[in-house]
Amino acid sequence: MGQPGQAPAYETVAAHEAEILEAWLQSLHADGALQSGRIREGELRVQCTGLLRQLRAGMAESSDVDAPAFAPLRDALSDLSARRAQQGFSPREIATFIFSLKQPLFEAINRHLGNEALALQASWQTGLMLDRLGLLTMESFQRMREEVIVRQQQEISELSTPVIKLWDGILALPLIGTLDSQRTQVVMENLLESIAQQGAGMAIIDITGVPTVDTLTAQHLLKTVAAARLMGADCIISGIRPQIAQTMVHLGVELTVVSKATLADAFALALSRQGRGVTRLRRPDAAPQPPATGLG
C-alpha cells in the first residue's frame, strides 16, 4: 500500500476511477479541448483513461511522482507532451490537460471520505502530486517546442542559402537576412560542397539582402572566402549598398576581397577573369535592313 496519508486518496481513485474519468472529460470539454480540431473525442478518452490508470498504479506504491512506481506515467506524459508540441498545441492546452484533473479528484475525495480532516489531507497531497506532474509535463512540452524551433531555423537557414550556377565555373551565393555564426557554417558548407561538385573557380557572394554589415558579419564573410580559396575558388562580394559601405568605413572594417556594387558587375568581372565577355549582337531598337534586290 501507499505511504501514510496516501492510502485514502489511492482508495478513492481505485474505487471511483470511472466516475473521476467522466468528470475529467467533462471538464476538458468545457474548457474547449476539442475545439481546435487537433484531437478527437475517442483519442482524448483513450489518453485520459490510460493516464488515470497509470496514476492509480503509481499512487498504490508512493506519493512521490519521482519514484519508480510513477515511471510509466512520467514516460507517457513526456511522450504525450512531445506529440502535442509537434501538433501545435498551446502551452495553456498542455497545462489544462493535467490541472483539470484536480477538481474531479478533490470532489471525489470530499464526497467519498467521511472524515473531513482526512479528506483535506488527502486532497492536499493529491494536489501537490498533480502540480508536480503538471510541471514535468510542461518541461517536456517546452523541451520539444525548443527542438522544433531549432529544427525549423536550420531548415529555413538551409533554404535561404542556395548556391546558383551562373555559368560554367561561376557560382553565386545570394544571402538574405542576418549572418551569424551558425548560419555562416551552413553557408560555408553549401558553398564548399557546390565548388567541389561543379569544379567552380569563381564564387560570387551577394549580400544585397543582408540588412547590416558589422565587424562580426565581415569576419563571417572572410571566413567563407578563406574556405573557398582553400578549395581553389576566388570570391567576389557583391551587393554592398552605399549605407553599408559608409557603416563599414566608420567601423574600420576591411574586406580583403574584391567587391562590386551589384551582382551584374560581379558576374561581368568573373566572366572577364575567365577570358569571356558579354557583347550585344545588335541594338534591340534597330530596324532590320531590307534585303538587296540586285536592281541597278
From TrEMBL:
Keyword Phosphoprotein among UniProt keywords: yes
Signal peptide range: none
This protein's UniProt keywords: Phosphoprotein
InterPro entries reported for this sequence: Bact_StressResp_Reg, RsbRD_N_dom, STAS_dom, STAS_dom_sf
Chain ranges of the STAS domain: 160-274
Pfam family, one: RsbRD_N
PROSITE patterns: STAS
Gene3D superfamilies: STAS domain
PANTHER family referenced in this protein's UniProt entry, alphabetically: RSBT ANTAGONIST PROTEIN RSBS-RELATED (PTHR33745), RSBT CO-ANTAGONIST PROTEIN RSBRC (PTHR33745:SF3)
Name of the protein: STAS domain-containing protein
Species of provenance: Aquincola tertiaricarbonis
